[in-house]
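Q: Could you write out the predicted structure for this multi-component system? I'm mainly interested in how the pieces pack against one another.
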Amino acid sequence: EAGVAQSPRYKIIEKRQSVAFWCNPISGHATLYWYQQILGQGPKLLIQFQNNGVVDDSQLPKDRFSAERLKGVDSTLKIQPAKLEDSAVYLCASRTYRLNTEAFFGQGTRLTVV
Amino acid sequence: QQPVQSPQAVILREGEDAVINCSSSKALYSVHWYRQKHGEAPVFLMILLKGGEQKGHEKISASFNEKKQQSSLYLTASQLSYSGTYFCGTSHQGAQKLVFGQGTRLTINP
């Protein structure tokens, strides 16, 4: 079974520029999460999708971050404009709809804002 | 609400035991345990559901105390490969929202 795919693996941008990350979850997984992990901290949930609908985006800085999951499969996370404090690893995870199942993580995208 | 993990860091010699705790201020439905090595994605260890369940995975096991809203991860006779940061993720009744603690860094020395 193929895992969660993310791209790019690394990205360096200047502050105030925009950036987009892409995630392809495991086939058939209805739930998709985006997490932000700052160095030395735990993953912070930014947004959760169920199919193509947003279930929770309470921690998403909506003035600069946006995310979509068209057709309930692939997802993109965008930052515009980026700030220095956005430097982090952005992790995508997917899961089946059943509550007692594990979440599978992608390798993440390491973003450096300079 | 983010669960609280303790301790924040542990240093052991190979063969020693460790316990990592995860507490929530809100009623728990499930607790997920993951291990993350530097520069890698979190790797799933186990899930515990409410009901005081205990689970095991090789020499790593965990318990779920529903009354205390707490889960504990037990690492027995630790091996060098156990080094990494351990995260607990919690979900509450009827929701798939998965919120992680701040992590516990485990270092195993020879």
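A: Regarding packing and overall arrangement: The first strand of chain A starts at residue 5 and ends at 7.
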